[in-house]
Design goal:
six-stranded parallel sheet; Transcription Regulator spoIIAA; alpha/beta; five-stranded mixed beta barrel; Rossmann fold
């Protein structure tokens, strides 16, 4: 297999636009506007990919709808990180047999990480005959061509060739939010954590050119976006593969110097590559949110080695200590896996100790899910499921208590928030650190920054009131 990143050329993009034009003429000849539904599973990178899918569909003449029923095209963007997500996809795809019967001519496509696994793509091909097309993340830029083939020939298409990955600039985008935007700065991963399928389905690390990232962010700011999140499987590896290498901290600094009122966030960081330069850059620029998502996965050095994480708990603690030294207001979140193969009660106790010592604002917690093709899937795993579930519950209870205490400490403080929507009669907003705050106020405030005094809390959110001029808090 070719392991060199492929740069999609402007000519190749122009060919895809020609397919879009042909599809649009196809529907114009039928004198109606077709409907398209894109359903997304998984991470923010998948959300960003789905924005490109909607953009391509719109260029093909489709109106974007919010349900499978009556859609002329359904695209399901899948996730392969955990077994539960895969089973949901199989169940929902199976149910589409009925919607397709009710809507003659409906076309169904599956894409995303799950379709980067040969066994999953083959299962769809053999057992889900109502699915018209399958393509993996490397082939996403070819979607107009694949759709055209299905529409004009009536034949199924499977674009699942393995690849190191591509870089494709110039794809259309339809964003679902007018305030918050995802910006992919790189794709793929080189870390090969023993439990993770991502390097196998998304390819090797490849960075977008800095001028392309800066141009996209500049355009978002001009369009009124206020909360911009930079995406990568490991953003700290950004730039290592560029002809003229630059690191993530340098890119972050250039973006933070752009004019306008906005906040920059990023995810995800890997502890092996995060360091003082990154934290100093975050501390220096007011437009970089003082929020860090730094997955630790386990507090046990033995388990971290088995996970192929390339750091130990002492190094992780040093990173957190320095980050908090230069950013005392830092909001810290993380990922943790419970029940990795061979995890003992002693190993799990080390994880609980790390959580108790660090005191995260929130955690994303998961029970180990074996992924076919990864080293961890072949490891001996003697711990009963019931014991893993019990450990998971203990961990969640510990973190819920910490989160509630930390949120309670906000009461009486003034925080700056971006007001981003409504929840019933209340406005919703987010602090710089990403904490949800509900407040009373006029809908006209949506899209603005405001100072809020915190008056109450729950385990997972805050309640506040708009601060009046001259009011203390």
């Amino acid at each position: 297999m070719e392991r060199k990143t492929v740069q999609i050329t402007p000519q190749q993009i122009a060919e895809q636009r020609a397919y879009c034009d042909a599809i649009k003429r196809y529907w114009q000849a039928q004198k109606r506007t077709p409907l398209a539904f894109v359903d997304t599973y998984g991470c923010q990178q998948n959300e960003a990919d789905s924005e490109h899918l909607r953009g391509m569909l719109q260029d093909c003449g489709y109106a974007i709808c919010d349900t499978e029923e009556g859609a002329d095209v359904i695209v399901i963007n899948t996730c392969a990180i955990r077994e539960h997500a895969e089973q949901r996809v199989y169940g929902n795809v199976g149910a589409l047999v009925h919607t397709k019967r009710r809507h003659e001519g409906q076309k169904i496509f599956l894409c995303g990480c799950m379709m980067g696994q040969p066994h999953a793509a083959e299962r769809i091909k053999k057992s889900y005959r109502h699915v018209d097309g399958v393509f993996n993340p490397h082939q996403l830029w070819r979607f107009p061509e694949l759709l055209s083939t299905v529409l004009t020939t009536g034949k199924r298409v499977f674009a699942v060739e393995d690849s190191a990955g591509v870089i494709c600039e110039g794809l259309p985008t339809v964003r679902q939010n007018t305030l918050k935007a995802w910006v992919s700065i790189m794709y793929g991963c080189n870390n090969f954590c023993s439990y993770c399928i991502v390097p196998y389905v998304r390819g090797r690390e490849r960075s977008r050119a800095p001028q392309d990232v800066i141009a996209e962010v500049r355009g978002l700011i001009a369009a009124g976006y206020k909360d911009i999140t930079l995406l990568g499987q490991n953003v700290n590896s950004y730039g290592k593969d560029l002809p003229e290498p630059m690191d993530f901290s340098d890119l972050l600094a250039q973006l933070a110097e752009l004019p306008g009122e906005f906040l920059l966030r990023f995810m995800t960081s890997h502890p092996r590559d995060a360091g003082k330069k990154l934290f100093d850059t975050m501390a220096k620029y007011p437009k970089i949110a003082k929020q860090l998502h730094l997955p630790f996965q386990s507090g046990s050095d033995r388990i971290l080695k088995a996970m192929n994480r390339h750091y130990d708990s002492a190094h992780y603690r040093e990173l957190i200590a320095y980050a908090r030294q230069v950013m005392p207001e830092l909001i810290l979140t993380s990922d943790v896996i419970v029940g990795f193969p061979g995890e003992t009660e002693a190993d799990f106790s080390e994880t609980l100790k790390l959580i108790a010592d660090v005191r995260y604002d929130a955690l994303f917690t998961f029970i180990f899910s074996p992924r076919k093709g990864t080293p961890a899937a072949e490891m001996d795993d003697p711990t009963p499921k019931a014991e893993k579930n019990a450990r998971f519950d203990r961990l969640v209870a510990l973190q819920d208590g910490i989160s509630a205490e930390l949120h309670h400490d906000y009461i009486g403080k003034t925080v700056r928030v971006l007001i981003d929507g409504k929840d019933g009669e209340l406005l919703t907003s987010r602090t710089e650190g990403g904490r949800l705050v509900r407040i009373k106020g006029d809908e006209a405030l949506i899209g603005t920054f405001a100072d809020v005094i915190i008056t109450d809390n729950t385990t997972w959110s805050l309640v506040g009131k708009l601060k009046k001029e001259g009011e203390h808090g």
